[in-house]
């Protein structure tokens, strides 16, 4: 790990200003991903701005009937919140399906959205990776790519986003609240928050330099039955090969998002109109234009079968 300096921020705007004005500075909250990357020297911040004193750790009801989740609310507290368990069950199920209990106790809501890909070539400094070092190439393309993206990828990157929570947030139409160094705040629909790799896979979100996530808001509850089905290589502590977050009403209509298949949580609203027709019709539209490799082409039928299992549960529950 390379040497760095450290300070604790006392105000969100102050924290944003420090990171915006100091090249090489990064925010530090739970640190469950960042510190691992620093040990491998994949992340090499010169200055860490600790935001754990900013009191962004509350879950509050909004005037619109939804919830405002502070950026520092831990994954454990979010999953256990009575209102989340009652009205946003897909979120609780997704969080509990991710990581270990110890990690969920430290990991924060904002940090979960910001975690980096688990592409093995990204984690190997000896291999070329356009996300880690722009312009160096992508060892995953032509390499072993079983875990990697089947849709939304580019000739520069086929990495996937690792979050379970973000997939549930996407199906719930969450919005990400931020503050910038000049004190201006904005709300970003989660559909627009994560970027596809394109020609700049190292740019993973629409955040500007120094822009700090302060909260995530959920619209008022949409009802329906909530599901998060995660297919992984072992029973616990493994990232999704494919996951399905879904909210389905008694009439068979609803919403669907996929994890483990793209550089961001993957949802195509137009595909959801086919839900009453079954999983095959939905995934044909949802995954249209997919570009799988020989190693991960199995994800296409796996996504269809996982969604079919969810639809079956919805019909019989």
From TrEMBL:
Protein name: Xanthine dehydrogenase family protein subunit M
Pfam families recorded: CO_deh_flav_C, FAD_binding_5
PANTHER family per the UniProt record, alphabetical: ALDEHYDE OXIDOREDUCTASE FAD-BINDING SUBUNIT PAOB, XANTHINE DEHYDROGENASE SUBUNIT C-RELATED
InterPro entries associated with the record: CO_DH_flav_C (IPR005107), CO_DH_flav_C_dom_sf (IPR036683), Diverse_Substr_Oxidored (IPR051312), FAD-bd_PCMH (IPR016166), FAD-bd_PCMH-like_sf (IPR036318), FAD-bd_PCMH_sub1 (IPR016167), FAD-bd_PCMH_sub2 (IPR016169), Mopterin_DH_FAD-bd (IPR002346)
Ranges for domain FAD-binding PCMH-type: 1-223
Keyword Ribosomal protein recorded: no
Alphabetic keyword roster: FAD, Flavoprotein
GO terms for MF: FAD binding; oxidoreductase activity
Domain of life: Bacteria
């Amino acid at each position: 790990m390379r040497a760095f300096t450290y300070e604790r921020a006392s105000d969100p705007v102050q924290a944003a200003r420090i990171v915006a004005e100091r090249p090489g500075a990064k925010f530090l909250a739970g640190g469950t991903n960042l510190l691992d990357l620093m040990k491998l020297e994949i992340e090499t911040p010169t200055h860490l701005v600790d935001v754990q004193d900013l009191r962004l750790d509350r879950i509050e009801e909004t005037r619109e009937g939804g919830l405002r989740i502070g950026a520092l609310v831990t994954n454990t507290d979010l999953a256990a919140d009575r209102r989340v368990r009652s009205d946003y069950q897909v979120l609780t199920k997704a969080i509990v399906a991710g990581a270990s209990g110890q990690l969920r106790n430290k990991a924060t809501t904002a940090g979960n959205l910001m975690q980096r890909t688990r592409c093995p070539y990204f984690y190997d400094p000896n291999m070329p990776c356009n996300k880690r070092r722009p312009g160096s190439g992508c060892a995953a393309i032509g390499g072993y790519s079983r875990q990697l993206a089947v849709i939304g990828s580019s000739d520069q990157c086929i990495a996937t986003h690792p979050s379970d929570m973000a997939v549930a947030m996407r199906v719930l139409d969450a919005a990400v609240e931020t503050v910038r160094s000049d004190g201006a705040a904005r709300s970003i629909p989660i559909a627009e928050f994560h970027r596809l790799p394109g020609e700049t896979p190292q740019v993973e979100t629409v955040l500007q330099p120094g822009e700090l996530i302060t909260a995530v808001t959920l619209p008022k509850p949409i009802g329906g039955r909530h599901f998060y089905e995660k297919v992984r290589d072992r029973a616990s502590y493994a990232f999704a090969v494919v996951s399905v977050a879904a909210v389905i009403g008694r009439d068979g209509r609803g919403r669907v998002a996929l994890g483990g298949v793209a550089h961001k949580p993957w949802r195509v609203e137009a595909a959801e109109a086919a839900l009453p027709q079954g999983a095959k019709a939905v995934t044909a539209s949802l995954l249209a234009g997919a570009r799988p490799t020989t190693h991960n082409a199995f994800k296409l039928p796996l996504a269809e079968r996982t969604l079919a299992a969810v639809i079956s549960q919805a019909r019989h529950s």
